[in-house]
Design a protein that fits this description.
alpha/beta, binds zinc ion, 11 helices, 5-stranded mixed sheet, 5-stranded parallel sheet, about 300 residues
């Protein structure tokens, strides 16, 4: 049960997004700045995303007639302009995802990284992105304030609800498109010793099967289903073949609305403007000092 379900367009029962974070080889450059440029295995693993997986994913979306949201670090936008061009040509959306996939909690001076990435989107993507997703979801108050300052319409790194909600601060707010680890392909499919991940890789059916169980619950409740996945992981042949089969079946048999996150923000803004929906609000900052008192 969802307390405050969103009325989706045309009475659709569930809004669906298969969002991709195209991190490419930014992950190794930020993790091993001294010698990453000569680590050819992780570089090539990352390059599989923009060069092999992205064309495959875009072809699928084209055949099914859907547009979706992609998040790219600014450095990836500069380094892989062909992938950027193909994504935009397909009518998809590119969101802000840091500059070199720096973790906001660990990278001091977020304004520098955030605005360096913004310059890349403005140059290669034709403007300021509508949305943001923090590298490793590690958003903090400094980034929240930058999002408000730069007029971002939505954010997608936090986990306080099943469905989109409002985040409000003293100076403004945005829509939150909530994520969670159960619909992220990093836990089932990433194995990346160089950045500290040593997980057993699951079979495609096992890893993806967990996502479809999440969809079934969201559909039953009349909610919001979003995958947060990576081209170099889920864009590989055996996994993507199963995503394609799920998409085909879902579009044929279910009453769903596949949309980009900025389109979902448009829809929510329209509902609120017409007085047809009152979203739940989370007020930030949550805390302004360490909790727990003297230790
Ligand atoms: Zn990422």
């Amino acid at each position: 049960m969802i307390q405050n379900p969103v009325p989706w367009p045309n009475g659709a029962r569930c809004a669906c997004v298969i969002s991709f974070d195209m991190d490419a080889d930014s992950l190794i450059h930020i993790a091993r700045p001294e010698d990453a440029h000569d680590r050819l295995y992780p570089i090539s693993m990352g390059r599989y995303g923009p060069t092999v997986a992205i064309p495959r994913i875009l072809d699928t979306y084209h055949r099914f007639g859907i547009q979706q949201s992609f998040f790219l670090p600014g450095w990836c936008v500069e380094t892989y302009p062909k992938a950027v061009e193909a994504i935009l040509e397909g009518g998809h959306e590119i969101g802000h995802h840091g500059y070199l996939h720096e973790d906001p909690i660990e990278a001091p001076d977020q304004r520098y990284w955030f605005e360096r990435a913004l310059a890349a989107y403005r140059k290669y993507c034709g403007g300021t992105p509508a949305g943001y997703r923090a590298p490793v979801y590690n958003i903090n108050q400094e980034v929240v304030d930058l999002l408000v300052e730069h007029g971002f319409r939505y954010e997608s790194s936090m986990m306080a609800d099943d469905i989109p909600y409002r985040v409000e601060t003293a100076s403004g707010g945005f829509w939150e498109m909530p994520v969670h680890w159960g619909t992220d392909d990093w836990p089932p499919f990433a194995h990346y010793a160089e950045i500290g991940y040593m997980m057993p890789v699951k079979a495609p059916s096992a890893g993806l099967g967990a996502f479809w169980e999440e969809f079934d619950a969201a559909y039953e409740a009349g909610g919001f289903f979003m995958l947060i996945i990576h081209p170099f992981l889920t864009g590989r042949l055996a996994r993507w073949r199963q995503v394609e089969a799920w998409l085909e079946e879902t579009l044929r048999t279910k009453d769903v609305w596949f949309a980009r996150l900025d389109q979902i923000a448009d829809h929510l803004d329209g509902l609120v403007a017409r007085g047809d929906y009152t979203p739940r609000v989370e007020h930030l900052p949550y805390y302004t000092e360490p909790q727990g008192g003297d230790r």
